[in-house]
Structures are given as structure tokens and as C-alpha cells.
């Protein structure tokens, strides 16, 4: 957990310049802090729920990676699409899914965002345009490319942003999808949450080439971003989304980050693939919440009292979400057949065909 006590570090650069440098107002910076505190406290509550048996199945926490969720999703429009892998609880919150609905989904309850049938890895909310929650490594990449194709086909001005882990870039679907996106100049943003490991395997053990080269063969521009610096992330994605929205075509982002917990709740934090010291050092030097706290306190934008108030609020929202989940019933037997079959529209098509659903088939 981030300490809410100040431990100001000396920096060669004047930290108060950071907001101006990125074109971020004091209010927006405080909102980013509030968001990340919620993500951290929410995940800690989920961790507790798992430990006491309220949450079953797989549960992958995003603790340590919060700046990537806040900094990349907050600058998007409500009608932009976001899709992700299975480490997606905070990304769903960032896209506007209610904390109660996310927690209830983790508990496998009826009021969960997927009716309690998906669980931790399958949080969906089409109204928020949060398109899951996918458990097959890389499986979401072609799907998000399909959404980008739909955006272009319909002439919309939205973008399709998809997160994946570093292990996904060695999957075949990733390469096919990026090639198609490039050829068709689709409004897709491919974001690798590069936390250096795929379960217990370091990225350097499964690739001879650097992450930044992965999209190069397809002619897709590649960007490297510090995923622990939420201000840098926000400014970067704000500008990138704007370009993609106006025809810049697909983009690849190596978002460099680090996970502070084990791969999933059932795995050790360090294990044999990384040392305890490595994790401790990352927590000390690369905690996105502590980094923003220090920046804002040095700039005189945040004080201790406000920070503690924000933290108390984040804890309360997380507690309320757990109480809500607890009170929600499990899905009933009627849920067994719900959302299993696709409805064919009156035109007899499953595809987007530009025709309103009420139009007669010809
Ligand atoms: C196609 C496929 N192969 C293997 C797995 C088993 N598996 C689950 S998570 C994972 C590692 C993925 O690591 P990464 O993409 O870096 O994401 P991270 O967990 O670090 O967020 C693997 C191999 C899977 N889910 N899907
Ligand atoms: Mg990884």
C-alpha cells in the first residue's frame, strides 16, 4: 500500500514544472491522484476478499500499475472503446464501470457487471464501452482490431484502445491483427503493459528483440512511455488519442511498468523468477502513487490533510463496494441460458451493415 506520509525525495528537475510541462491543471492532477488511490484501495479490498474466500477462481491484481489505467483511459472520450486482458479491474473503473458492479463481479454475484458469470477476468460493460476482460493471452488483440475496423467502416470519430501484457506480443494473433490494422489504417492503439514478466518468465528470456521493435515490421509507429508517471501517461495518451481520432492510423505503445504482487492471488510475490530485493526496490522507487504525491506536495498542490481525506474516501468506496457485493445474490438458474446465443438482427445478419435493425431484409 502507498504510505500516505510524506517522504519527499530530492530531484534534479523542479517538480513543480511537471504539471506545466504536461499541460495538466492542478485540479486534473488531483483527480488522477484520487483515481489511483481508489484503484489501490479497491484492489487491496479485492485481495482481502480473496484471502477470506469471498472471491474464487483467478484474481490478478493491478497494484503497482495504476498509472497506466488512470493515465491512458482518463484522456479518452466516453464513446471510445477500451479492451483488456485479465488484469483489468482498475481499467474497468477508469472507463466508468461502477465500483459496486466490479466488486460484485469479483464475488460472482448477480449485480456484477457480467451478471456474476464472468468473474475477475471477464468484466464487461458495453454502455461504458469497456469490452472486457479476456483470459486468453493476446486473444483480445484481434477483437479490438475488429472494433477499430467497425469505427472506420461507420465513419465514427472514436478510437479502440487495447491493453495486453508483454507475453502477448509473441502470439500469432497479435501479428496478424497489427498487419491488418496497418494496411487498413485503423484507429487502434495497442498498449503493452510491459511489467517485464509473463507469469514467472522474464521478457528477455522469450524475445531476442526489444519491445519497441515489435510493431516496426508492420509500419506502425512505436512509442515508449514511463508507465509509473501518471502525468506523462496522461499527456501522452491525450495527444495520441487525438491524432488517431483524426486519421493517424494504428499506434503501438510500450508502457513500461512493474507489478507489485504475484502474477495472480495464488502465486507468490517474488518466487524464483525475481528476487525480494527487486520487488522492494521497485516499490520504493517506482510506486506511481508515491511519485505523484511527492510531485504534487513539492508543487504545493497537495497537502497531507487533503491526501488523507482522499485516501479515506477511496477506502470507503471500496468498503461500500464489498458490502454491496456481499448483499447481492448469486445469479439464478435463469442466467444459465442468458447471453449464450447471439441474436440475429431482422436483416438476417450478424455483421455491421450500416442498415438500421428495423429495416426489412431485401
Ligand atoms: C494462449 C494462452 N497461453 C497461455 C496462457 C496462460 N497464461 C495466463 S497469464 C500468462 C502470462 C501472461 O503474461 P503477460 O501477457 O505479460 O501479462 P501480465 O500477467 O504480466 O499482466 C500465461 C502464459 C493463457 N492464458 N493463454
Ligand atoms: Mg507481463
Which keywords apply here?
362 residues, alpha/beta, Rossmann fold, 5-stranded parallel β-sheet, 11 helices, 7 strands, 9% strand, globular, binds thiamine diphosphate
Secondary structure blueprint with pairings:
Layout: H1 17-22, H2 26-51, H3 66-73, E1 81-83, H4 89-94, H5 99-106, H6 140-153, E2 160-165, H7 172-183, E3 188-194, E4 197-198, E5 201-202, E6 222-226, H8 230-245, E7 251-256, H9 276-285, H10 288-298, H11 304-327
Parallel strand pairs: 1-2, 2-3, 3-7, 6-7
Antiparallel strand pairs: 4-5
The structure holds thiamine diphosphate and magnesium ion.
Magnesium ion binds at residues 165-167, 195, 197-198.
Description:
This protein has 362 residues and is of the alpha/beta class. It has a single domain, classed as Thiamin diphosphate (ThDP)-binding fold, Pyr/PP domains (Rossmann fold, 3-Layer(aba) Sandwich), CATH 3.40.50. 39% of the residues lie in helices and 9% in strands. It has 11 helices and 7 strands. The protein has helices at residues 17-22, 26-51, 66-73, 89-94, 99-106, 140-153, 172-183, 230-245, 276-285, 288-298, 304-327; strands at 81-83, 160-165, 188-194, 197-198, 201-202, 222-226, 251-256. It has a 5-stranded parallel β-sheet, with helices on both faces. Strand 4 (197-198) and strand 5 (201-202) form a beta hairpin. The longest helix has 26 residues, at 26-51. It is globular, with a radius of gyration of 21 Å. Mean pLDDT is 93; it is low at 6-13. Bound molecules: thiamine diphosphate (TPP) and magnesium ion (MG). Magnesium ion binds at residues 165-167, 195, 197-198. Residues 165-167, 195, 197-198 line the site of magnesium ion.
